[in-house]
Write a structure and sequence with these properties.
Elements lengths: L2 H10 L4 E7 L3 E7 L9 H9 L5 H9 L3 E3 L2 E2 L11 E6 L16 E4 L3 E6 L16 H9 L23 E7 L2 H12 L4 E9 L6 E5 L2 E3 L7 E3 L8 E9 L3 E8 L6 H8 L24 E9 L6 E5 L4 H7 L4
Helix pairs in contact: 2-3
């Protein structure tokens, strides 16, 4: 990359992932250009933001110490202060296969037959194993419940999982028991034909009784762990909303997804100035009720059954914390 090309990236103000390549031995090499907003930050912190995907700063400190990180072609220490326009190159060793084991974790099953089940996921439960979450996940629980009867299309880390909801979002989630069911449900998700209605409490008083938010959603240009309304690299996202009850400083709402992008409701509501109550990622961090994450519940999911071709709609009751919250002076 020439100096002029690097300057163009710098002027545009975008954090660009310049490319990645897998070398022999399973090492993934990535290149980034530091943005203006990252100037003056420590190298290890910048790396955990750019390509952390759940990895800690200590993980990147080890890579830096091992000579697997270069800045402008030179090795640097973890406390190196990044400059805007720095070319950062990282070599990340390929992750080792982790054995995922069944665990006898109670499930709140809303519906079940030979093809699938719909579970009411509790707050704080991760859907499938990932860095830092190799046990206690929904996958561990359904592996115990379903034994060997789970679809294998998404591999050993995500058996039966055809879609996800965030760790701190509660509610209805489909788990597929065979590949035929998985393909049918995945096809409906791709076509946006599945009914998905959520309930949530947002900050502020929403003026309109109902409305539509349409704005592309893509990876945040600076913080790679976040999503953003981003015309440049986003995908079309549409959220329909309806006000259920207005309080003095909050609003109880229903959301229906026309599309299903990562963090869609959270990002869309934050974009119009009404982040979800308790959302520490897209909100302002103030949390007077000491909530665990966003106040969001997947209340209804509806789909064509993969074997019977009949429409099936399953509702998940509000969790206790949510019911009690609605009784407070919001």
């Amino acid at each position: 990359m020439t100096e002029q090309e690097r300057e163009n990236y710098f002027i545009n103000g975008f954090q660009e992932e310049l490319g990645q390549q897998e070398f022999s031995g399973g090492v993934l090499a990535q290149e980034f250009l530091a943005a203006k907003e990252q100037a003056g930050e420590r190298l290890d912190k910048v790396l955990s933001t750019l390509c952390g995907e759940g990895q800690s700063r200590s993980f990147f400190q080890k890579l830096i110490k091992g000579g697997q990180v270069q800045v402008n072609g030179k090795g640097r220490k973890a406390n190196y202060c990044v400059n805007a326009g720095d070319l950062i190159q990282v070599e990340i060793p390929k992750a080792q296969e982790i054995e995922i084991l069944p665990e006898n974790i109670p499930l709140d099953i809303l519906y079940e037959d030979s093809d699938l089940l719909v579970v009411n996921k509790p707050k704080g439960m991760v859907v499938h194993p990932s860095a830092g979450h190799y046990s206690g996940t929904l996958v561990n629980a359904v592996m115990y419940h379903c034994k060997d009867s789970l679809s294998g299309i998404n591999g050993v880390i995500r058996p039966g999982i055809v879609h996800r909801i965030d760790m701190d979002t509660t509610g209805a989630l489909i788990v597929c028991k065979n590949d035929n069911a998985h393909l049918h449900i995945a096809g409906q998700i791709k076509e946006h034909s599945i009914t998905r209605r959520y309930l949530g409490i947002v900050k502020g008083v929403v003026a309109e009784d109902s409305g539509i938010i349409e704005g592309t959603i893509g990876r945040h240009p600076i913080d790679r762990k976040k999503m953003a309304v981003n015309q440049r690299n986003g995908k079309r996202a549409v959220t329909h909303y309806r006000v259920l009850q207005r309080f003095s400083s909050h609003t109880y709402m229903e959301f229906e997804l026309e599309t299903g992008r990562t963090h869609q409701i959270r990002v869309h509501m934050a974009s119009i100035g009404h982040p979800l109550l308790g959302d520490s990622v897209y909100g302002n961090g103030k949390n007077p009720w000491k909530l665990q994450g966003q106040t969001l519940h997947a209340a209804v999911i509806g789909f064509l059954h993969p074997s019977r071709a009949e429409y099936l709609e399953v509702a998940a009751p509000l969790p206790e914390y949510f019911v009690k919250l609605l009784e407070k002076p919001l």
